[in-house]
Amino acid sequence: MKKVLAMTLAAALVAGATLSTTGDAEARRGRNGAAVAGAAAGLVGGLLLGGALAQRPAYGYEVEPEPVYVEPACYWTRQQVRNTYDYGYHWERVRVCD
């Protein structure tokens, strides 16, 4: 759809520029207004065509990947733990995660 619109606009600009140009005889008699109008129409048409064909930046549409939760590798083991009452040691079963 975008290409069809751009091609139609380009064809209209070429046709308009062709029809609005003046010959040498008209330019010598002081009808430079048509030449200036043709040049201005060509510039404006080029700007419109360039704007239609230019790629748009993707503001706000950056896709971030979903966060991935990785469960840590855990295991149960027995460790020697210091007893705070009599300053001795005892064995406890503890979970250790990497």
Give structural notes.
The chain is an alpha+beta fold and 98 residues long. It has a domain at 2-53. Helices cover 47% and strands 18% of the residues. It is built from three helices and two strands. It has helices spanning 2-20, 24-28, 32-53, and strands at 74-82, 89-97. The protein has a two-stranded antiparallel sheet with strand order 1-2. Strand 1 (74-82) and strand 2 (89-97) form a beta hairpin. Helix 1 (2-20) packs antiparallel against helix 3 (32-53).
Fill in the keyword field for this structure.
98 residues, alpha+beta, two-stranded antiparallel sheet, 2 strands, 47% helix
Number of helices: 3
The coarse silhouette is: rod-shaped
Overall SS class: alpha+beta
Mean pLDDT: 76
Beta-strand residue fraction: 15-25%
Main-sheet strand order equals 1-2
The percent of residues in helical segments reads 40-55%
Rounded to an integer, what's the Rg over CA atoms? 39 Å
Low-confidence stretches: none
Helix and strand pattern: HHHEE
Signal peptide: 1-20
Organism: Labrys wisconsinensis
Keywords: Membrane, Signal, Transmembrane, Transmembrane helix
Transmembrane segments: 35-54
